[in-house]
Write a structure and sequence with these properties.
The protein is an alpha/beta fold. Helices cover 46% and strands 11% of the residues. The protein has one domain (81-344). The protein starts with a helix and ends with a helix. Residues 1-37 have low confidence and may be disordered. Keywords: Acyltransferase, Lipid biosynthesis, Lipid metabolism, Membrane, Phospholipid biosynthesis, Phospholipid metabolism, Transferase, Transmembrane, Transmembrane helix. GO terms for molecular function: glycerol-3-phosphate O-acyltransferase activity.
């Protein structure tokens, strides 16, 4: 249970470091007051357009910062450091990268030479086949982590196979799934991807019970919801992993959790993931970079360093709605990983609201600020 201090901290983070609106006012604009300290209505009306613009700037900035990659400060700025940086580039691209490609290639050879016979020759032995396929998926994920020189610290008890439980985690990149999968063969719910990633989804990852959806298909929601309910009731099914943010966020913030994972009537096990950016930024901006290029970026870095915390399972409380339950779990994950909570729906990253809708929201924000000024 969160302490009052933590709740106050979380609510203050929702303010998004609220700026002083006076900074947005023109230099000539000032709010005059009556002798008794009350604001005049016409003065408030005079500045309402400026407040609307300020509201728009605040909203746009606080939303887009969740999906921005913040590059580290350059350190090769003088004649002494630049040769060291050049030496590092040579090591990373011409020594580490070929070695990592070799490791990954060997991993795929071992995996495919074992997975194909197991998948096709053990059709009549479902339990044995599932166990072997689960171990092989964990193995290939371990080779992927090794190809980035992954340094991953796991905290807490390893997840076990039990019915009526679901694991939820914050989401920075598709490698979150790989990092978690190398320890436990989760069945994940994930957006259907094109290309070679989609081929892996429809063949290899199907073997561990993964569930795919298409964000653009409205009918998929009902189908996926039924699959989720059926999966969590299965005794022999792999633990179910969900990224309730629905999109990759830059590991500084958490956006709103979708309520689907929190209305299944089962225990919710939070998983917090925090990457250390000292060697590479693991955030994947899928709108600007393909997953192939993202993997190349990781394989040409020094290392991928992160911590993973398996936290105490949570259950919905009497009188608590699924949305409130989701927010409580998000607060637990954010606190453990040191992430800031923001009140935005991650799907806005893919479908930004229309200009008219944004204008209405900005106007409503400005009017609320005016009312607060009137009350002072």
């Amino acid at each position: 249970m969160s302490s009052p201090g933590k709740l106050n901290s979380s609510s203050s983070e929702l303010d998004l470091d609220r700026p002083n609106l006076e900074d947005y006012l023109p230099s000539g604009a000032s709010i005059q007051q009556e002798p008794h300290g009350k604001l005049r209505l016409r003065d408030l009306l005079d500045i309402s357009p400026t407040l609307t613009e300020a509201a728009g700037a605040i909203i746009d900035d606080s939303f887009t910062r969740c999906f921005k990659s913040n590059p580290p400060e350059p350190w090769n700025w003088n004649v002494y450091l630049f040769p060291l940086w050049c030496f590092g580039v040579v090591v990373r691209y011409f020594i580490l990268f070929p070695a990592r490609v070799l490791v990954l290639t060997i991993g795929w050879i071992i995996f495919l030479s074992s997975f194909i016979p197991v998948h096709f020759l053990l059709k009549g032995h479902d339990k044995l086949r599932k166990n072997l396929e689960r171990c092989l998926v964990e193995l290939i994920c371990s080779f992927f982590v090794a190809s980035w020189t992954g340094v991953v610290k796991y905290h807490g008890p390893r997840p076990s196979m039990r019915p009526k439980q679901v694991f939820v985690a914050n989401h920075t990149s598709m490698i979150d799934f790989i990092i978690l999968e190398q320890m436990t063969a989760f069945a994940v719910i994930m957006q259907k991807h094109p290309g070679w990633v989609g081929l892996l989804q429809s063949t290899i990852l199907e073997s561990v019970g993964c569930i795919w959806f298409n964000r653009s298909e409205a009918k998929d929601r009902e189908i996926v919801a039924k699959k989720l309910r059926d999966h969590v009731l299965g005794v022999d099914n792999n633990p179910l992993l969900i990224f309730p943010e629905g999109t990759c966020v830059n590991n500084h913030y958490t956006v709103m959790f979708k309520k689907g994972a929190f209305e299944l009537g089962c225990s919710v096990c939070p998983v917090a993931i925090k990457y250390n950016k000292i060697f590479v930024d693991a955030f994947w901006n899928s709108k600007k970079q393909s997953f192939t290029m993202h993997l190349l970026q990781l394989m040409t870095s020094w290392a991928v360093v992160c911590d993973v915390w398996y936290l105490e399972p949570q259950n919905i409380r009497p009188g608590e709605s699924p949305i409130e339950f989701a927010e409580r779990v998000r607060d637990i994950i954010s606190t453990r990983a040191g992430l800031k909570k923001v009140p935005w729906d991650g799907y806005l990253k893919y479908s930004r609201p229309s200009p008219k809708h944004r204008e209405r929201k900005q106007q409503s924000f400005a009017e609320s600020m005016l009312r607060r000024l009137e009350e002072k």
